[in-house]
Amino acid sequence: MLRGLRLPMARPLLARMGLNTIHTTAIVRAQTIVPRPPPSERVKPASPAYFTTKPSYIDTLLMLDQLTREIKRELEQSYILQANSKPPPLPQGPTNIWVSREILRSRLGINLRASQFRSIISRLTLLLRYRALVIANFTGENASMFSERSTTQQKQLAQKMEEVFATFMSSHGKAQDAQKKSDVPPKTSTRGYIDEQGRAYARGRRKESSARIWLVPAKNPDLEIGEVLVNGSPLNQYFTRAVHREQVVWPLKLAGVLGHFNIFALTRSGGQTGQAGAVAHGIANALVAQLASANGAEAQSTYERVKLLLSKDGILNRDPRMVERKKPGLAKARKAFTWVKR
From what superkingdom does this record's organism come (predicted)? Predict the structure, then answer.
């Protein structure tokens, strides 16, 4: 009925009827507009990584990175670590303490690739480097007392770190961790231990070579006549080069106990350089195990001094350097053929 009232020719009629064009337009719009329902409440994703392919995997990486940054920042602000310093070394003991790829895949609920599993393990290993400092300074007697807020924050970081380790550690890793906390050194051949016959035993590795070392105190250490046998032969007969013999006895010289022990070594694989490095690596760890078994305050101080010297020298850890592989198109690993223009 009111459809034609908006035309210009109908304006006189509207004037006689006492109506206004603006009011009529409002009436027409009110009749044509359909009321809309109120908008529903916006649902936000629970995680920032909701729209990624694997949100649980991304959340795990972000959580580990954030916790590592917070712990490092707190250690630097407490003047325990220098600013922008390298992470502390890994603690001694087995490093394969994390859950397997299948268990982690079931916990995250995704199909975890090998590269993604390595990314999580590498972040957990980096966090493990700061664990000793966090336990010694944030939860022990040496906890910093700058303010109540700082102390509370440090304890919360330490508790959160332990919860993360409890989540991602395997049952074997938890057992090793409990054994380490009880001040009982783990019986591993890599770090050395005292066997049933009272001999210090350790294994050493270098390149493709491996060595087994038995270390026994000499009957009369004052005479310094300790002997070193490698595969049943004296040291000077098995290693004909002086540089290899010096490498073998270097841990004993560094500790100042050259000639105080009789050493029996069995080595195999690799060449002379690799075998000499493997024997030296095993001797260093066997020496630390032998000194750790001694009783008394003087023996304990000697053990700590020798272990610190060998640790700073790096002989307690395996040398990770390996032979670089040959590349296709090159004569050797890096040597190239003579380039000819034509």
Answer: Eukaryota
State whether residue 130 is helix, strand or coil.
coil
Q: What is the largest CA-CA distance in the chain?
A: 135
Do 166 and 207 share a domain, yes or no?
A: no
The total of other beta-carbon atoms located within 10 Å of residue 249's CB is: 18
Other Cβ atoms within 10 Å of 2 Cβ, number: 12
- Measured at the CA of 88, the angle between CA 92 and CA 145, to 5 degrees, comes to 110
Mean per-residue pLDDT for 245-262? 91
227/115 same-domain check = no
pTM: 0.50
Between the alpha carbon of residue 29 and those of residues 4, 17, 24, 339, the distances in Å are 14, 20, 9, 85
Tokens 């957990």 found at: 124
Strands 209-217 and 193-194: unpaired
Overall domain count for the chain: 3
Domain that holds residue 112: 55-181
Residue 31's pLDDT band (boundaries 50, 70, 90)?
Answer: low
| Same domain flag for 145 and 61 | yes
